[in-house]
Amino acid sequence: MKPQTIFAILLAASLYWMYLLYSPYLMSILIASLLAVSTFSFKRRLREWTGSVFAASALSTLMMALLFFAPLGYFLAKITIYLQHFDPTTLESVMDYLQELIERAPGFSGHSKSYVSNFIASYDPAELTKKALAYAGTIGSISASFVKNAFMIIVFYFFAHLYGQRLAGYFKHIINLPPDDARLLGSEVSSVMSIVFYSILLTAALEGALFGIAVSFMGYNGLLFGILFGFASLIPVVGGALMWVPFSLYELSLGDVGSAVFIALYTILVISVIADTFIKPVIIKSIDSRLSTTESKRNELIIFFAIIAGLTSFGFWGMILGPAITAFFMALLTLMERKNALADTIAKAD
Fold first, then answer.
1. What is this structure's pTM?
2. Which one in 20, 95, 108, 257 has a CA-CA gap of 20 to 30 Å to 175?
3. Are 283 and 153 in contact (CB under 8 A)?
4. CA Rg value for the chain
5. Looking at residue 294, what is its pLDDT?
6. Where are the domains of the chain?
7. For residue range 5-28, what is the model confidence (pLDDT) as tens digits?
8. 145 pLDDT exceeds 50?
């Protein structure tokens, strides 16, 4: 047997065992690597300021933990406590109000009114309360799993910043990728990921803060519901409606029509129209102009659908994975186009 064949067999076997060894952490490593790529420019500025790669990596990791994972952990902890102390009378009042509202609604026909009324009546508040308690236990286990995964992502994120450039240079040397091709792939994925990450972070923070300020004046936990609205706003199409519709219905069930109308109009006009329609594109355009290169400018619609596809396929982390996969694929197509154009030019010259 040739030495090359033996080496190939040993390499394949070692790759297989490496996969088995690190498979529980592959998703965490991938997410951490993509987040490190997204925030590389920020870490580079920290390095220029501190003069130390270690200090810059540590500060960047601390900022990531505080800005991204701390709000998620706070939300999961609070929602678990809330569900454990869920008051069934609250749900009963909302259900009774909806029944009364449907009965008084003039636009419904008798058949439609009966169907909707029966649909609402089929949900027993006591049964829903039991489910809420069961969900509390489920969310509690999810919270514990999230804390574990978040910790691993933070650890890998730190090492990705600390050793990322050396590892990238090593892999480029191993696969013998031409410098121009490596630069294209790197800049394409890096710029798209940076645009997606910073635009998601800033718009979610802006819309969450606007909603949190509004509901805090109504006596609710503005921080909790602001965080919840910020993450809900990341869901395309439906977005903030997952928050303001239940709020309005709850206020209506309490008989506070003014607060219900206020939160509905405020969310639609201030957040959906002004913030989402006018301010959000300005934020994205500003980030795009600062971070994009001429090569890496991509249609925003492609990124939008990449986020939707990512959320559908991979869940929460799909908003990071979807654009990364799409950007890498588009970069490979661009690279292939360049290779074909170069081959055509050489063929014509001959």
1. 0.70
2. 20
3. no
4. 26
5. 46
6. 24-176
7. 877 788 888 888 888 888 888 888
8. yes
